[in-house]
Automatic annotation (TrEMBL):
Record protein name field: Mitochondrial ribosomal protein L57
InterPro entries, alphabetized: Ribosomal_mL63
GO biological process, one term: mitochondrial translation
Top-level taxonomic group: Eukaryota
UniProt gene name: mrpl57
Pfam family of the protein (one): MRP-63
Signal sequence range: none
Gene Ontology terms: cellular component: mitochondrial ribosome
GO molecular function ontology, one term from the record: structural constituent of ribosome
Amino acid sequence: MFLTLALLRKGISGKQWIGKYRRPRQITWQMKRNTLKHLEREAENEYWISRPYMTTEQEYGHAAERRAQSWLQIKEAKFSKFPEHKRITDHLSHLNVTKTWSS
């Protein structure tokens, strides 16, 4: 069909690389090589993904202790920035003007 259109219309109307009646690109040896490399890489990735590092029994809860330690570190860091508690006596100490030294 493309051949007939090209012969009858004497050329491709508009831009030759885009549109409904565009000219197909030539497949070069570099394109074939790149596609082959991509497919080989994908096959290797699927090979490694299909073999898990740990079994499901080993995987269950394997990081619980590490996560607990990191949570404690985060909590301690948060509390270290927190100011100390102030008692009500500290807030109202300026009212103790009538208190004598002897008592």
